[in-house]
Structure of Mechanosensitive ion channel family protein:
Amino acid sequence: MEFLSILKHYFNINLFIIAGQTVTLGQILLIPILVILGVWVTRKAVSTISSRLIAKGVQADLVHLVKRILYVLAIVMLAITTLDFLDVPITAFAFLSGAIAIGVGFGAQNIINNFISGWILMWERPIRIGDFLEVDNAKGRVEAINTRSTRIRRVDGVHLLIPNSKLLENTVTNWTLIDQRSRTSVRVGVAYGSDCNLVRDLITQAVNEQDDVLHNPEPKVIFDDFGDNSLAFEVYFWINASIEGELRSIRSNIRFRINDLFNENKVVISFPQRDVHLDGSLTLIQPNIK
């Protein structure tokens, strides 16, 4: 009992006064316990809600938005609870918070801009987790939309951190905003004298044999030009591909198949060549070799 009395005496020692309310040593020591308990409960609750949303098939970006909102609400509630535990009214910080806000506003404009942009991205969802983006000269898939920046994994595996404000203020190509359909093309040149109708049919066959090529809209073969060294053909087709690597792979398969069909049907793929015409006579002199 004597030990408890001594402990209670020390816990009741007054340290300072805020807005007319005395703060004791015991209250200060209990604040970390309150914060740790609040953080633990918040993480458990957010994890449980997120797991249930994912199990119901909710999109990853919506789950991410819900988690952000829950964390913000938890922080606000924890701060209010802590002040109430200290018997400190929130109005006591009105002037101080206003002064801090003005100072931070001037010194951290970019950070605040990116913070607000991050919330706009998560709320309006012009960019979602899993989308394939093209920003400046970089292409990659969105892995996370954070408060300050968005993390993108480039096609070569390198991760990029792009400020959220840049995604709102600049032109961004979102390949998968509406769906994953993309149109691409393969170009090939054949030698002069080739049967153009046969070439068209062979190219169409090569494209239609690919499982990844969509048949609606149908592939379209265009006789593009009478080139310097070839008859130029180009086929346009639609595919379900969300990253550039898939486009290159499908185009490569089509080129392999076109080459095989051309070889089977004796169609020659052209190559650069020049015909030289000489005016006048040309005399060849063979030197005497002794």
Notes: The chain has a mean pLDDT of 78. The longest helix spans residues 25-55.
